[in-house]
Write a structure and sequence with these properties.
Elements lengths: L6 H8 L14 E7 L6 E8 L5 E9 L2 H14 L4 H4 L4 H8 L6 H27 L2
Antiparallel strand pairs: 1-2, 2-3
Helix pairs in contact: 1-2, 2-5, 4-5
The chain binds FE2/S2 (inorganic) cluster.
Length: about 130
């Protein structure tokens, strides 16, 4: 029988990287919380940046399907060490390709792209607010 999932999906699903949570009130932490309207799955992805805007730590919690968990695991691995401007350029199609997701599972990788963007947006918001208080 054909494998329903590619090995890389299984690996990220069984051994997800960077599962966890960071303090969302930390000024260096950006939190992205997104949901997929199609299935109701939810993903929380967090990034911690240093003063140079480099992502030094990541965490995620995904309440969703195996492909969504694998997508968020891969995304947190990819963005670690990246500048936020580069992280924002990650496309769901890159994630889907790396994991060999079938078309029906594309929205799962979309969740990861959205979550990265939401986390970066949250961080920028915080920084703007912090700047306004100075
Ligand atoms: Fe909806 Fe995977 S089935 S995120």
């Amino acid at each position: 029988a054909a494998r329903a999932y590619h090995d890389k999906v299984i690996d990220h699903y069984e051994n997800p990287r960077n599962v966890g949570s960071m303090d969302k009130n930390d000024k260096n932490v950006g939190t992205g919380l997104v949901g997929a309207p199609a299935c109701g799955d939810v993903m929380k992805l967090q990034i911690r940046v240093n003063n140079d805007g480099e992502i030094v730590e990541t965490a995620f919690k995904t309440f969703g399907c195996g492909s969504a968990i694998a997508s968020s695991s891969l995304a947190t691995e990819w963005v670690k060490g990246m500048n936020v401007d580069d992280a924002r350029k990650i496309k769901n199609s890159d994630i889907a390709k790396e994991l060999s997701l079938p078309p029906v599972k594309l929205h799962c990788s979309m969740l990861a792209e959205d979550a990265i963007k939401a986390a970066i947006a949250n961080l920028k918001e915080k920084r703007t607010e912090a700047g306004a208080q100075n």
